[in-house]
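Here is one chain, start to finish.
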Amino acid sequence: LDRLNIGDTIHSFGMSAGRKRQPGSYVGIIAYGVGITEALPVAQAELRKGDADTVKLLWASRTVDDTFWNDEIKNLQKQYPKKFQLVQIFSREQQEQCQNMDNNSNDMTTVLHGRINPGILSQVFQPPDKANARFLSVGTKAMMYETDDMLSSIGFSMPQHGLIPKQK
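Its structure:
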């Protein structure tokens, strides 16, 4: 987008017809890089709907310099301190601040190092009732399908546990 001139056009797409939100008391959202631009508004919408007890957002970035929307995230953390949790994972740098992963913790943001894999997903997402857990991943199509496979491998079969189930 940074190469577009005023008056240039782009083609974009929306949600496929027939896809519907499946509510759940626990919502886990995985955002890869700039996928946060879709993931954060979804998290905000889920918090506003009020039927989820927990909305947990895992945001994978290369470095802390690749992150943005810090004010928006802080506002959600302040507005929903008991419902919204952010976990950031950086693949190319290690942050010294690494906070408690305990679901009962009052820590606002947890920082991890590495790449998303089934172990990380198990560590981050620990719903009290697996049957009512719903997940959404936002990234490239390949990343989203790989994430669905990882979630299935840890007991969250797709599309049953999909917040907005994908059609392969």
